[in-house]
Design brief:
323 residues; three-stranded mixed β-sheet; alpha+beta; 20% helix; 6 helices; eight-stranded mixed β-sheet; 2 domains
Length: 323
């Protein structure tokens, strides 16, 4: 079996702004990418894949293989070598000789746990359906859409506010992570710090709560000649707030591998990048090398304004596997 599907949890260390391009009519000028059916913010898989490829190329010392492969005076085309971790994992296109599709695909990162202020302090809002879909088990007293109720462990008052919205408390839910041990020691501490502060609502309310509590900032354009604010150049933009948890899948489809034969790339690090202290024996190793740098260099826009850093907060295999 040559495919492997792995699920990753992401924790936003900063607000995350993945813009839709240009100005939009609405409550903010620069809106963020959303799912069409639910109107919930997301991090598109294309944004994740672009950042991961660039950071992996940086770590392996292969900057020419980070972009689209178009040659210029300062950059060569993709090398296209089967021993190149970047070209083999993410694919490449060349002006001559064609190219190859990549051996990994990254899905959109969807919201799993969304931070909101309340009378009980900060809580993380989710739904039973979203947690179940991500692989978490949910039991106990659960909210119902008919009564617009919510749950919070160890909260003994009859009602709880989620931002501006006041809901009746139905009880407390028990949320159990996947049995495949998704957390290492550091990640387990992150999970335990919020595990008893998770609030469940119905899917009917979740989108309303999220879109009412997104981070919105106001900025002004600066005149480069005077260094002062431009007149009539005030604009607003929104972002997924810090401390939000998201979930996405990566599928490794190593279609170039022939049965149990060894892969065409070496199992030891042989490039002029940083010392990774690990061998790379499959494309997912290269993806994870790039994911390691997202917590420092970020994804999306507004990076110079302190936006974009996300951290891998857990991962586990959910399907497939290869020898």
């Amino acid at each position: 079996m040559n495919y492997l599907q792995k699920r990753y949890l992401l924790l936003a260390l900063d607000p995350v702004h993945i813009g839709t391009g240009g100005y939009r009519l609405g409550r903010v000028d620069l809106s963020i990418a959303r799912e069409p059916g639910t109107n919930l913010p997301k991090i598109p898989g294309t944004s994740l894949a672009g950042a991961v490829r660039s950071y992996a190329a940086m770590r392996y010392g292969k900057p020419d293989c980070a972009g689209q492969g178009q040659a210029s005076e300062t950059r060569q085309e993709h090398c296209g070598k089967p021993s190149c971790p970047i070209c083999y994992t993410f694919g490449y296109a060349k002006d001559a000789g064609g190219g190859f599709a990549g051996t990994v695909s990254l899905s959109d990162a969807h919201l799993l746990l969304f931070p909101v202020y309340s009378m009980a302090g900060p809580v993380w809002v989710s739904t039973q359906e979203r947690l179940n879909e991500a692989g978490f088990a949910v039991s106990g007293q659960l909210p119902t859409a008919e009564k617009n109720t919510t749950t919070l462990t160890n909260w003994n008052k009859p009602s709880l506010n989620l931002g501006w919205l006041l809901l009746e408390v139905a009880g407390g839910a028990i949320i159990t992570p996947p049995t495949s041990s998704p957390f290492n020691e550091e990640q387990l501490k992150l999970w335990q710090s919020i595990s008893e502060r998770i609030v469940l609502t119905s899917e009917k309310l979740f989108s309303q709560i999220v879109n009412s509590n997104l981070e919105v900032r106001t900025s002004v354009s600066i005149n480069p000649h005077t260094g002062a604010a431009e007149e009539h150049a005030l604009f607003t933009y929104e972002a997924i707030p810090r401390a939000a948890w998201l979930c996405f899948d990566t599928v490794e489809d190593d279609y170039r591998r022939n049965g149990n034969a060894s892969r065409p790339f070496p199992t030891t690090k042989q490039f002029q990048g940083e010392t990774l202290n690990a061998t790379w024996t499959r494309p997912l190793d290269v993806v994870e090398a790039g994911l390691d740098l997202i917590q420092y260099l970020g994804v999306g826009g507004m990076g110079t304004r302190g936006f974009g850093r996300v951290q891998v907060a857990g991962s586990w295999q959910i399907a497939g596997g290869a020898a």
